[in-house]
Amino acid sequence: DYEERRSIMDANPIHVSIAGRMMFKRVMGKASFCNIQDLQGSIQVYVARDAIGTGSYTDFKRSDIGDIFGLEGFAFRTRTGEISIHAEKMTLLSKSLQILPEKFHGLTDTDTRYRQRYVDLIMNPESKETFIKRSKIISAIRRYLDGEGFMEVETPMLVANAGGAAARPFETHFNALNEDLKLRISLELYLKRLIVGGLERVYEIGRVFRNEGLDTRHNPEFTLMELYQAYTDYNGMMDLTENLYRHVAQEVLGTTVIEYNGVQMDLGKPFERITMVDAVKKYAGVDWNEVETLEQARALAKEHHVEFEERHKKGDILALFFEEFAEEHLIQPTFVMDHPIEISPLTKKKPENPEYTERFEFFMN
Fold first, then answer.
1. What are phi and psi of 73, to 5 degrees?
2. pTM of the model
3. If 0-12 CB within 10 Å is exposed, 13-18 middle and 19+ buried, where does residue 360 land?
């Protein structure tokens, strides 16, 4: 009974007003229950005809799942202990013209989830959590790099030469100069020019565009981060990368221990560092230090059923061995170092062994 509940709450009522999307509704004559969802979560609302008035209650009964309401009332606990709101005023703020998917199963259709991301966000709490976490991660990255003396910059998206990566660009035309231009496929070349110009530590978080295949892991436009630093070497950059991951995990999650695909990783522990040659030796049983000629490399590839092309040199075949035998084992955080010169353009050669470069790639899962 509304009056009875109201008199009980009069002693110390907690008045509230909230707004959100109605995700559930159960009408029971003169009283109903619904759930209202916003960015912070979901709460049950008790809606009684005697509390909000006959006209408002009639409108409420006609409302649909997905409608957005504002409401005022007071908080109480149900017999089962659930915190709920007893509505005293209900206002329809925005009508949902589209029917939402069936709630109990959420939204599972992959195509709809990617093409209509707003529906995915409404129906799947885990998707919303991913978006929130992504925003926090980018903020944490910025704070860390700013604290390390890096400047955030913006470089051109429209370029005459879409370099810095191997990908097909999108092409467009600039009428004012009657020039064909391309959308950038990476951030590299202009950031390096800023290093040349003396800025010393720069980074950019920006969109790049690649006119290629499309699937759930590849989008024609995506966000890339690149950073460049003068007066260090690849050991310093590995330290920076390791500390960045550790800092972001601690700040965003409150722990350096994370789990992915049922595998637990501790970003607080030192990351493994292994050369590509040692990784192939460890996981394929082939010691590339003993491979002296291209003919030997090709023979080993045929023996181990590693497919290669005529254009591939000795270093290319080493990289194919790495991809075939080693990469799948790199679950825990691992830096793979010293890539062969053949697959490492614009990279410093190792002074003691010019067949390899001072380059690293970070692997995890």
1. 175, -155
2. 0.81
3. buried
